[in-house]
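Tutorial handout. Part one gives the primary structure; part two gives the three-dimensional structure as tokens.
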Amino acid sequence: MFDTGAIVALYSGDKKLAESLQTYLLSRDLSNLKLEFQRGNGKIKVDCFENQLPVELELEKHVFLSAADYYSRNNELMD
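Part two.
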């Protein structure tokens, strides 16, 4: 799951780039993606888009690897 607003902000409001990034992440193998976040201390750099600057994604800020993590964070923000 994603915090779409936070991802759109990474691309200065460009929703198409944010959607492309989300599609790219959804196409990735979940186990490998988890491993990348673990190795990067909760962060990964995505630089696979041609003519676009790389972006750094943070786990549980931009990307949630489970629905439970997403809902847990949102409940914390609402309390």
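Part three, for discussion. The radius of gyration is 13 Å. The chain has four helices and two strands.
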